[in-house]
Design a protein that fits this description.
The complex is a heterodimer of chains A (498) and B (200).
Chain A: H1 17-27, E1 34-41, E2 47-54, H2 60-73, H3 83-91, E3 97-100, H4 103-112, E4 115-119, E5 125-128, H5 158-168, E6 174-181, E7 187-194, H6 200-212, H7 221-228, E8 240-242, H8 245-253, E9 257-261, E10 267-270, H9 281-285, H10 288-318, H11 325-335, H12 342-362, H13 368-385, H14 391-404, H15 411-446, E11 448-449, E12 452-453, H16 456-459
Antiparallel strand pairs in A: 1-2, 2-4, 3-5, 4-5, 6-7, 7-9, 8-10, 9-10, 11-12
Chain B: H1 2-16, E1 31-42, E2 45-55, E3 64-73, H2 76-84, E4 90-92, E5 98-101, H3 107-119, E6 128-132, H4 135-140, H5 149-160, H6 166-171, E7 181-185, E8 188-192, H7 194-199
Parallel strand pairs in B: 1-4, 1-5, 5-6, 6-7
Antiparallel strand pairs in B: 1-2, 2-3, 7-8
The chains are: A alpha+beta (498), B alpha/beta (200).
Chain lengths: 498, 200
C-alpha cells in the first residue's frame, strides 16, 4: 500500500463499518503505537463504534471522560438518522468535534493526537480533539535573554505559539492563515499578520511561495526561509528569526509578516532589513538613553570585528609607515621565530577562535571550565610562548572575535566578511582592503528582502527612518511606523507635545 | 539615486587608493627600523653609517639594541644600495628621525642628500638634520644604557627648538651653519646650537 499522503486525497469512507475499520488498520498496520478501541453502544440507539488514536498523543483522561463515558452512559432521543451527527450534537462532551468523510483529514487528525470515531451504518466519522502530547513548556530563549522585559519564549507546539501571540495582540485584526507543507511531515504552517497594518500583497506572495514548496519534510522554519528567499547566495540574513512572542508582536505591529512552523519555536519574520541585526529587545525595554549607547556600541563592534584584522594585516605587511616606530618594533619582535607567514597565522587564529566558539555552543555546560582553560591558556599564552603565533595578532583576532559576539544575528556574515577582507588585505594592502570593502557594500546595497531594500535607511533615507536604526528614539518621538513595511503609518495619534 | 551615489563614492575611493597598492610586501620580522643615518664624504665617496634596531628573539628584558651597518658609494643612491646588500633584512627608513651630516659635507653634497630625501618615498621631509665632525664616529660611540642614539639625539634636539628639519633647510637654501652640531666630549655626546658654537 502506497502510504504517501497525496494518495489519500479525495478518498472517502463508506457505510461499511468493518471495511472502514480494516482500511484504517491497514494504513497504520506497521505503526506499533496505533490503537483502536471498539465499543457497542445501546443507549436508545444501537450501533458499533471504533475509536482510532495514537498512544501517548492523546490525553487519556480527556479520551475517557469526553468520549467513552458519554457514549456508554448518555441516553438520547436522536435528532437525526445520521449517527455521527447525533453523537456530535447530543452525546460527546468535547470542545472540538468535526464531522467528515475525508480519509486524509482523519489520518492527519490521528497523527496530530485527535481521536477518530467510526460508526456502523454511517458514511461520516468524527474527529474529536483529544490532543495530549507533552510540550517543553514556556521558558526564556537562551540566545535572546533580556535584562528587563518579558521572559517567555515560544514552544514547539504551533497552536500554543499562536495562543501566546494572541495574548500579546488581542485583536481580531490578527490573522493566522494555515498552510500544510511537507509530504511526509505534513507540517502545519501559519502565516500571521495584522490585517489592517500588513501589506496584503506581500501576504499573498508569501502564501503563494509557501504553497509552491514540494518537499518531503519541514522540520524548522529555516527550511521555508531557504526555499522561499530570493537571496539564495547572500551572507546576510534577509529573513528575521526569533523565539520571542514579544518580538514577533512588535514586528507585526510594524507591518511585517510572521511565518510560524509546527515543531519549532523559531518564527520567521519578513521583510528583514540590515538595521534589525543591531536591534536588541533590551533597546525597547530599557531607557532610550541606555539603548542608544548599546546600539551604537553594536555598530562599532560589527565594524571592529570585520575590519580590524584586515587593517592590521594591511598595515603591518605593506604600510609600516602608518604605525608608530615603537609599535612596529614590538610587532617585529613578536613575529621573530614564528614559522608561518602572517597571512597563514591570521587565518589559523581566526579558525581556532571559530572552533572554540562552535565548541562552546555545542558542548555540555559542565565542560565549560575545561574549554575556558584550553581556550585561554593553551591557545593564548602557551601558543605565544611556543612561538606558534604572535601576541599582537592574537590580541587583534581575539578582539575581533569578541566584538563579533556583540552582533549574534550577523555571526556568519561577520566571519566570512572578515576572512574575505583579510585575504585581500594580505595580498594588496590598504588598496585590497578597500576593494573588499567596496565589494561587500555593493553586495549589501543590492540585497532586497521581500520587496524592501535591505539598507532602506540609506537608499530611501527619511528623517523618520533614522529613529530606529543607529539610535533608538524615545517612544514619544516614534509616532509613525517605518514606511517601507506598511501604508498604515500612524502608530501614535497623540503627539508628545499635546 | 542614492544607491548610485554610494556606488560612485565607493568606486572613487578604490580608484584614489589605487596608489596605495604596492608590492612592498615584507613580513614584520624581516624588516628593521633605521634609527639614525650618518653621512660622511671622504675621498669623493659617500660613507653611510646606519644605526638600526636589532631585535632579539628570546624576548628577554633587553628586547632590542642598536646595531651599525656601513656602506660606501660614489653617489648617495649607490651608498644606500651598498648598505642594503649587506643585510638580509629590509631596512625601513619610515621612522628614521635624524640624519647626521659628517665630514666634508658642503652645501652641494647636502643638496644631493636632500634630493635623495625628496625622491625617497620612505624618508620624511620632517627628518632632523644635525652636523658633526665625523658622523660614523658619533654613531659608533657606545653608551651604557644601550639606547638608540638616533632617538636620544632627537629628544635633545627638540629641546633646542632649532629649525633643522629637511624641509626647513631646503627653504633656507641649504644653510649648513644653521644646523645644531653634535660633538663628542670624551665618551659623552652633546648637542650644541649654532650660536653657542660661534660663542665658544
Amino acid at each position: 500500500m502506497n502510504k504517501d499522503i497525496k494518495n489519500f486525497e479525495n478518498k472517502k469512507i463508506t457505510e461499511n463499518y468493518k471495511k472502514n475499520l480494516e482500511y484504517f488498520k491497514k494504513i497504520f498496520s506497521k505503526d506499533a503505537v496505533f490503537r483502536t478501541r471498539e465499543i457497542h453502544v445501546k443507549n436508545g440507539l444501537n450501533f458499533d463504534c471504533a475509536a482510532l488514536f495514537i498512544d501517548s498523543m492523546v490525553n487519556a483522561e480527556k479520551f475517557n471522560i469526553s468520549i467513552i463515558r458519554p457514549l456508554l452512559t448518555t441516553k438520547v432521543e436522536p435528532i437525526s438518522k445520521n449517527i455521527a451527527t447525533v453523537v456530535r450534537k447530543q452525546i460527546l462532551f468535547n470542545d472540538e468535534v468535526t464531522e467528515t468523510n475525508d480519509v486524509l483529514k482523519m489520518i492527519q487528525g490521528i497523527n496530530l493526537g485527535d481521536t477518530v470515531l467510526l460508526f456502523s451504518n454511517c458514511s461520516t466519522a468524527l474527529i474529536v480533539n483529544t490532543k495530549g502530547w507533552r510540550t517543553r513548556g514556556i521558558s526564556e530563549p537562551s540566545d535572546e535573554r533580556v535584562q528587563q522585559g518579558p521572559r517567555e519564549g515560544f514552544d514547539e507546539a504551533l497552536v500554543l505559539n499562536a495562543a501566546m501571540l494572541r495574548r500579546k495582540l488581542s485583536t481580531p485584526d490578527l490573522c493566522f492563515e494555515r498552510l500544510i507543507i511537507g509530504r511526509k511531515t505534513v507540517t502545519n504552517v501559519f502565516v500571521c499578520y495584522l490585517e489592517s497594518v500588513a501589506d496584503l500583497k506581500l501576504v499573498k506572495f508569501i502564501k503563494q511561495e509557501i504553497s509552491k514548496i514540494d518537499i518531503d519534510g519541514i522540520l524548522d522554519s529555516n527550511y521555508i526561509n531557504e526555499l522561499i528567499n530570493k537571496n539564495k547566495f547572500s551572507l546576510f540574513k534577509t529573513a528575521g528569526s526569533t523565539e520571542r512572542p514579544d518580538i514577533v508582536a512588535a514586528r507585526l505591529l510594524e507591518g511585517k509578516v510572521a511565518i510560524m512552523v509546527d515543531g519549532t519555536p523559531v518564527v520567521l519574520t519578513v521583510p528583514y532589513v540590515f538595521a534589525e541585526n543591531f536591534q536588541s529587545d533590551d533597546d525597547y525595554y530599557l531607557n532610550y538613553i541606555y539603548a542608544f549607547f548599546g546600539r551604537a556600541l553594536r555598530y562599532l563592534c560589527y565594524n571592529i570585528s570585520v575590519m580590524v584584522p584586515a587593517l592590521y594585516m594591511a598595515v603591518t605587511l605593506f604600510h609600516p609607515n602608518l604605525l608608530p616606530a615603537s609599535f612596529l618594533i614590538s610587532v617585529s619582535a613578536s613575529r621573530g621565530g614564528i614559522p608561518f607567514p602572517s597571512f597563514a597565522e591570521c587565518l589559523i587564529l581566526i579558525l581556532i577562535f571559530e572552533i572554540l566558539k562552535e565548541t562552546g555552543i555545542r558542548m555540555q555546560q559542565n565542560v565549560g571550565h575545561a574549554l575556558s582553560i584550553v581556550g585561554g591558556l593553551v591557545v593564548g599564552q602557551a601558543a605565544v610562548d611556543a612561538k606558534l603565533v604572535s601576541a599582537p595578532l592574537l590580541i587583534v583576532v581575539a578582539l575581533s572575535g569578541i566584538a563579533g559576539l556583540m552582533v549574534p544575528r550577523l555571526k556568519l556574515a561577520v566571519v566570512y566578511s572578515k576572512i574575505f577582507l583579510v585575504i585581500l588585505s594580505s595580498f594588496l594592502g590598504i588598496f585590497g582592503f578597500f576593494v573588499g570593502f567596496t565589494i561587500l557594500h555593493i553586495h549589501l546595497y543590492s540585497l532586497n528582502s521581500f520587496g524592501v531594500d535591505y539598507v532602506y535607511t540609506v537608499t530611501k533615507f527619511t528623517k523618520n527612518s533614522l529613529k530606529d536604526t543607529i539610535i533608538r528614539a524615545p517612544w514619544w518621538l516614534m509616532i509613525k511606523r517605518p514606511f517601507v513595511f506598511t501604508k498604515n503609518l500612524i502608530r501614535q495619534k497623540r503627539k508628545f507635545y499635546d | 539615486m542614492i544607491k548610485k551615489i554610494v556606488f560612485f563614492i565607493l568606486i572613487c575611493f578604490v580608484l584614489m587608493l589605487a596608489g596605495c597598492s604596492n608590492s612592498d610586501y615584507t613580513e614584520p620580522e624581516n624588516r628593521v627600523v633605521a634609527s639614525a643615518i650618518g653621512v660622511d664624504y671622504i675621498n669623493n665617496e659617500y660613507n653611510l653609517t646606519i644605526e638600526y634596531v636589532k631585535i632579539f628573539e628570546n624576548l628577554s628584558e633587553d628586547k632590542y639594541s642598536p646595531k651599525l651597518i656601513k656602506g660606501k658609494g660614489d653617489s648617495i643612491n649607490n651608498a644606500v644600495l651598498n648598505v642594503l646588500t649587506k643585510t638580509n633584512k629590509k631596512i625601513s627608513f619610515y621612522h628614521t628621525p635624524v640624519i647626521i651630516l659628517g665630514q666634508n659635507i658642503t652645501p652641494e653634497i647636502l643638496n644631493n642628500i636632500l634630493n635623495y630625501c625628496v625622491e625617497s618615498t620612505e624618508i620624511s621631509l620632517s627628518i632632523n638634520l644635525i652636523r658633526a665632525d665625523n658622523a660614523g664616529q658619533i654613531l659608533s660611540v657606545e653608551n651604557e644604557d644601550n639606547d638608540l642614539l638616533g632617538y636620544k639625539l632627537t629628544e635633545q634636539i627638540k629641546l633646542l627648538n632649532a629649525k633643522n628639519s629637511a624641509l626647513q633647510i631646503i627653504n633656507s637654501n641649504n644653510n649648513l651653519l644653521d644646523l645644531p652640531k653634535v660633538v663628542l666630549l670624551g665618551n659623552t655626546i652633546e648637542i650644541i646650537n649654532n650660536g653657542e658654537e660661534n660663542g665658544k
